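Morning run. Coffee first, then this:
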Amino acid sequence: MTTLKKLFRSGLLPASALALSLLAPLSALAADEYQPVPDKDPTTIAANPFIAGAYGFIWVALLVYVISVARGLGRANAEIAELKRKLGS
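And here it is:
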């Protein structure tokens, strides 16, 4: 049984859909009450360098992982070839 079917049969999925449909008008009311801040706080810093750094770190980590997996796969294939050679197949 899939997770979606389990959630539907347990009643969690219909209950959450009902809750979301009831809360949607409340969020629209809260959006009408928003008042923008008139001046910028001088103690805040821009988030763009941190976001770019995080994305850069993730890409470098992913690249290092892929390279290490590829090297391990190359070593495993070399060992398999060596074993085949030793067995005479």
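Residues 45-89 form one domain. Good start to the day.
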